[in-house]
Write a structure and sequence with these properties.
Blueprint lengths: L47 H8 L6 H5 L5 E5 L2 E2 L9 E15 L6 E9 L2 E8 L4 H4 L5 E8 L6 E10 L40 E5 L8 H15 L8 H6 L5 H9 L4 H32 L11 H8 L7 H14 L6 E6 L5 H13 L4 E5 L3 H14 L7 E4 L5 H13 L4 E4 L2 H4 L7 E7 L6 H12 L6 E6 L5 H7 L4 E5 L10 E5 L4 H13 L3 E5 L7 H17 L7 E4 L5 H12 L5 E4 L12 E6 L7 H8 L10 E5 L5 H12 L3 H12 L1 H5 L18 H17 L9 H10 L4 H6 L1
Parallel strand pairs: 2-3, 5-7, 9-14, 9-15, 10-12, 10-13, 11-12, 13-14, 16-21, 17-19, 17-20, 18-19, 20-21
Antiparallel strand pairs: 1-8, 3-4, 3-6, 4-5, 6-7
Helix pairs in contact: 6-7, 7-23, 7-24, 8-10, 9-10, 20-21
The structure holds adenosine-5'-diphosphate and magnesium ion.
Length: 754
């Protein structure tokens, strides 16, 4: 009954530490036809040069060819007998050429090629405009498929496309450029669904004709004929989707879907095919992600925390405000995770100012009141220090023992902190990712909050897990991000995390006024800034993003500050902040800005995250068109944090339409989730979030924004399957498992490691 698998990639589904089980296979299992791996040169007439050219299209094997889908189809349906042609109708006719001639007209630029063509039902005149060469190319006796319209003044057939189906007598080479000897002929094989692959009649002029991306040297006709030659292979594709799922989702077979992607009989058939393949893509991806999440949980144990206790209650009661419904909901979601033995892996997303800090502190305190330790990790030293300060303030009087692990400490101070952490004399440690990377030993680490998850790569997430394993328990982890990600994208990008969102802002928040400032209004903008400064407010000036080098960026910042100090903002107190400064210098600058001593902070995007200066009311961004929406939104979030009305002034009109529409979106809405959606639409998911970098396989057909609904369905079905067959061990799921492995192929380590 069982056949063992050939040697293949390591199995991602084997439980960590457990010996790899070999994949059970049933004898019934259908494998993809081996010919799919054959090089293109196996096609008749395709030599090494053509094969190299085809690589530009990503085509090396016959299998690649099958998956080289057309980007549109031309509708050549409605084929007719000559005798049946109706006036004014566009149609395809299969005819024999009787005679052909060039016919000058009185108009200077118009020459007609006129041919008499016919079939058993009658004859008609076919005309081409200005295609004199046809007279040389076509001969009496040729069999042609003509596409065109029967409505010419002389009741003739105006040809819009033709295809030579067979030659008459006395015919020489070829039909012209772009069409060689190697006009693809199927080399036997199973007959295709409609007609044999052998002669490929009507490949270019009947039905829905696929139109492919091409190269200079590989024409669309050539691609079409290659596809015609391999279409019989499509019919033998195995189907990884379980039949029950296929039935529930009303999806066609894979073989039919792939074929219909190229040669659909109806538009409906094409749509169903595409839906099927998109679903498969999303489903496989979700299976990979969910199994990864499951394995993370399975191999580890977290602390089962008791219900909310005294400490948390006092913390909440001590807050000067009531939690928003979103905060309450999110806290409930987190609580549920904390009370389970499985370590939490949750993403908390919420716009800048949405009140994530309270939720984070609450989460940390849940560990503390259970006698465990908690850690708060920030992406930078500056932020860690800021977090530490505000956390000390918010926890005042609660008796929580806190510590900051900072590079500003002397070696001796650092040793002291480390010792206290190891001895369990510290409840709550704040620091950068140095917390998990270095010699920090916790006595009992129960909960970790990681601020700004998007700066925290997969690698670091893993280190975090490793770190914790040394102590026997895996901490519950809450990743926080202020870069809202549309839920659907979160499902993909963080498909291995549970996601909580705070979408609603705390009450009383005033929207920051956002304006695109044209260059000629610049003086007015400085007027406005000066008035605000005179009223005691403060201002950020963000200099253009310079990707090449931090050093150049630092210089640009210094120069801009000098320029302003000598010009428009003369007499005001300016300071600079950039990534080349030591964290000590940065800290000093921030403190001076916070205290109000510095009025204008000229900066790079260092200030993007977390900086909290309620008195700052102006965010001025130079060359804003060079920033992404998410980043601009972050920058804008630096103001509007206090009682004063705030302004975000965007300079740089943007050279491209895309840049412009991004900036306009900024001015239109303050909703970070909406902006994230817009960014996604404008720039596309791949570019924006670097799916590749995140170790996820590419999506070929699916577009997360467009295919939301399918993604949700794929997610739900994948979750159901992983629930019932966690390692896809059941024979009927073997193919599926195979495909997931293949899909996650080059990132298989990533999949296996956690
Ligand atoms: P985030 O970290 O999500 O950017 P914060 O947690 O720093 O936002 O909250 C921003 C501001 O809103 C803080 O000053 C905080 O005290 C305040 N805040 C948080 N929650 C509420 C609430 N429910 N009602 C009123 N103000 C709140
Ligand atoms: Mg925050």
């Amino acid at each position: 009954m069982q056949a063992t698998s050939k040697s293949r990639c390591p199995l991602p589904f084997a439980g960590s530490g457990s010996p790899r089980k070999s994949l059970p296979r049933t004898s019934k299992q259908i494998l993809d036809p081996p010919e799919l791996g054959a090089p293109l040169t196996t096609l008749r007439g395709v030599g090494p040069a053509t094969a190299r050219e085809a690589e530009k299209l990503g085509l090396t094997t016959l299998g690649d060819l099958l998956y080289h889908f057309p980007y549109r189809h031309e509708d050549f349906t409605s084929s007719r007998k000559v005798g049946e042609l109706r006036w004014g109708e566009e149609a395809t006719i299969a005819v024999r050429l009787e005679s052909i001639m060039l016919k000058p007209t009185r108009r200077r630029n118009l020459r007609l090629v006129v041919a008499t063509v016919g079939d058993e039902s009658g004859f008609i005149e076919a005309i081409w405009y200005n295609q004199d060469y046809l007279v040389e190319q076509l001969r009496a006796g040729d069999r042609l498929l003509l596409r065109g319209r029967y409505d010419g003044a002389g009741r003739n057939f105006r040809v819009t496309g033709h295809e030579l189906m067979g030659r008459g007598e006395g015919v020489g080479e070829g039909e012209g450029k772009g069409r060689g000897r190697d006009e693809g002929r199927g080399k036997g094989g199973a007959p295709a669904r409609r007609g044999g692959a052998e002669a490929q009649p009507g490949l270019h002029t009947t039905g829905f004709v696929p139109v492919y991306h091409t190269t200079e040297k590989i024409s669309v006709k050539r691609l079409r004929s290659w596809l015609g030659a391999v279409r019989h292979l499509a019919a033998r594709l195995s189907d990884p989707l379980p039949s029950l799922l296929r039935a529930r989702m009303s999806l066609p077979f894979k073989a039919d879907a792939v074929l219909a992607m190229h040669f659909p009989r109806t538009p409906g058939e094409f749509k169903a095919a595409r839906r099927r393949l998109i679903f498969e893509e999303l489903y496989l991806m979700q299976l990979g992600l969910l199994s990864r999440r499951r394995r993370y949980i399975e191999g580890r144990r977290g602390l089962e925390l008791g219900p909310e206790g005294e400490l948390c209650r006092r913390f909440l009661e001590g807050l000067p405000f009531r939690l928003t419904p979103d905060q309450e909901r999110v806290i409930a979601e987190i609580s549920k995770d904390l009370e389970r033995w499985q370590p939490m892996q949750r993403l908390l997303q919420g716009d800048v100012g949405s009140g994530k800090t309270v939720v984070a502190l609450y989460t940390l305190l849940r560990a503390v009141e259970n006698g465990a330790q908690a850690a708060l990790m920030a992406p930078t030293e500056v932020l860690a220090e800021q977090h530490f300060l505000s956390l000390e303030r918010m926890l005042a009087g609660l008796g929580v023992r806190t510590a900051l692990l900072s590079s500003r400490h002397t070696a001796a101070e650092r040793q002291e902190v480390l010792a206290a952490v190891a001895a369990g004399e510290v409840d709550l440690v704040t620091g950068t990712h140095a917390l998990i990377q270095e010699d920090v030993a916790f006595r009992k680490l129960g909960v970790v909050v990681v601020d700004e998850q998007h700066r925290f790569g997969v690698d670091q997430r893993e280190e975090l897990a490793e770190k914790a394993t040394a102590t026997g328990i895996t901490p519950h982890v809450l990743h926080m991000t202020a870069t809202p990600i549309p839920r659907t994208l979160a499902l993909t990008l963080y498909g291995d995390l549970a996601v909580s969102s705070i979408e609603q802002m705390p009450p009383g928040r005033r929207e920051t006024v956002t304006r695109l400032v044209p260059e000629d209004k610049r003086p007015l903008a400085y007027d406005f800034i000066r008035r605000q400064l005179d009223r005691g407010r403060q201002c950020f000036v963000v200099c253009p993003l310079i990707e090449e080098s931090q050093a150049i960026e630092a210089r640009a910042v210094a120069e801009e500050a000098e320029r302003l100090a000598a010009g428009e903002l003369k007499g005001y107190r300016l300071a600079v902040l950039h990534g080349q400064m030591s964290s000590r210098e940065k800290q000093q600058v921030m403190e001076s800005f916070k205290s109000g001593e510095t009025q204008v902070l000229v900066s790079t995007t260092v200030i993007e995250v977390g900086v909290d200066v309620p008195n700052a009311t102006i965010m001025m961004v130079e060359e804003a068109d060079r920033f992404g929406l998410a980043q601009l939104h972050q920058l804008r979030g630096r103001v509007g944090r206090g009682e004063h009305k705030s302004y975000c002034l965007l300079f740089g009109e943007g050279v491209t339409d895309q840049a412009r529409s991004r900036l306009e979106a900024m001015a239109e809405t303050a909703d970070g989730f909406l902006l994230a959606d817009r960014d996604l639409e404008i720039r596309g998911e791949g570019q924006l979030f670097g799916l590749r970098q995140s170790g996820l396989p590419d999506l070929r057909l699916a577009r997360i924004t467009r295919d939301r609904k399918l993604l949700e369905q794929a997610r739900a079905h994948a979750a159901e399957l992983i629930e019932s067959d966690p390692e896809l061990q059941r024979p009927e799921n073997a193919l599926l498992r195979d495909q997931v492995e293949r899909l996650f192929g080059d990132s298989i380590d990533w999949l296996r490691k956690v």
